[in-house]
Amino acid sequence: MKTIEKYIEALENKDFEGLRNLFTKDGHYCDYCPNGTPQHEYHLYGRQAEFIASFGGYYVMAIASLQQLSGDGHIRRLTVRLK
């Protein structure tokens, strides 16, 4: 399973320990979209995932982009933004 797939799976399952374990010790997570959507639709494109996010009570498309991975596959930098 790709790192971005593990990231989405951890979010869906509210597995915060698993999410934490995906990052390097100095990892950077930048999320511009609030959580809260009960939907599980997402699409993976290489180092990006598109999914539905809840933003101010509206459901919008969001993109999670892996900016940087460590040599052992841990996330060093990840950004989530509206599409």
Low-confidence spans: pLDDT under 50, at least 5 residues? none
Major sheet attributes: 5 strands, mixed
Rg = 12 Å
Number of helices: 2
Percentage of residues in DSSP E strands? over 45%
Mean pLDDT: 77
Instruction: Please give the number of β-strands.
Output: 5
- Strand line-up across the major sheet: 1-5-4-3-2
Question: What is the name of the CATH architecture?
Answer: Roll
**The level-1 CATH class:** Alpha Beta
Tell me the CATH topology: Nuclear Transport Factor 2, Chain: A
Structure description:
The protein has 83 residues and is of the alpha+beta class. It has a single domain, classed as Nuclear Transport Factor 2, Chain: A. The protein has helices at residues 3-12, 16-21, and strands at 23-31, 42-45, 48-55, 58-69, 75-82. It has a five-stranded mixed β-sheet with strand order 1-5-4-3-2. Strand 2 (42-45) and strand 3 (48-55) form a beta hairpin. The protein is globular. The chain starts with a helix and ends with a strand.
